[in-house]
Amino acid sequence: MDRFRYSSYAQEVIFAPGAIAQVSDAVERFGWQRLLLCTNNSMQVNRNVDLLRSALGDRLVATFGRVQPHVQDIQVDQVLGLALEHEIEAVIGLGGGSPIGMAKAVAYALEPSIPIIAIPTTYAGSEMTAVYGITHSRESPPRKVTVNDSKIVPKLVIYDPELTLDLPPEMTASTGINALAHCIEALYSVTRHPFSTAAAIQGVTYISNSLLSCYQNGKNLEARTEMLTGAHLAGLSLASVSMGLHHGLCHVLGGTANVPHGIANSIILPHAIRFNADVTAPQLLPAAEAMRIPFNGSSPQLVMEAMVQKISDLIAQMNLPQRLRDAGVALKETDLPHLAHLAFQNRTVQNNPKPITDVAQLESLLRGAW
Question: What's the predicted TM-score (pTM) here?
Fold first, then answer.
């Protein structure tokens, strides 16, 4: 890393238990008067929407409360119409990656674009990045396209660990593994730099310390706070670097086969680490150390295999699927060559530190994950 280049973004980040109560003061500082909320049904059931509505009062003039996974293009059109009708000045994403992604998509589609407020209640990390994915559901098969632009970085991010206390165990586990994957890919990214590396290593430390505790006892506020800190660092580490094979494959599996993003992460991450290990081991050794994997004079390759095993064991302890056939979607083994072909054309996959020169490499990885 004797030469590097990256972009950073102007964001205000507020992190504290009970921080949702501070959203009104923050919005007032920015001068936003007419706000649109993008969220989903679970946020309404657990009353997080009520907390936000109470904090914002009359400034919250419209709500779209049924955001589906993977940011569907049809819903983007619906929310865009709502934003135009109510002359929205800023848009809020409350929930996981999909509501925040919807807020990004709508803000970006408006002319001129408007600011985004992100209030994450999972560990997906979308709140820190200048990217979102949109699923073109009218195509056959559906196709997920990634949009990357500095305009879609949330201007205000509210982290309130108390909002994560009701996060179900499976969502805790899957989005937690997603956050860990952010750190792993940031560490070996072809555009990594000292800041991204430092954030990623510290993120691995926090996540390794707290994720299983959050899964086992969701009401543990101390563990939830540490895990959300790790997720913040994970998103921060990934925000200014290029993703690679792992996330590219997960986007293809989500957009084409409708595999939930966190579940795709839990299945693909061990295989992606093993695939890249002969090239990326030097960059991942600090992560192994952060995970308390003993080296004992072992070769880097053996340490990487120990990392794969430790992550696989964690995934198993949290009862997440470890094979594509168990992902709970209508995916068949005969679909794998087509998915490999799509992945080979994916620019994120092609940013991988280990060159992807043949579709067969990807098909072999997917068959290993099957």
Answer: 0.94
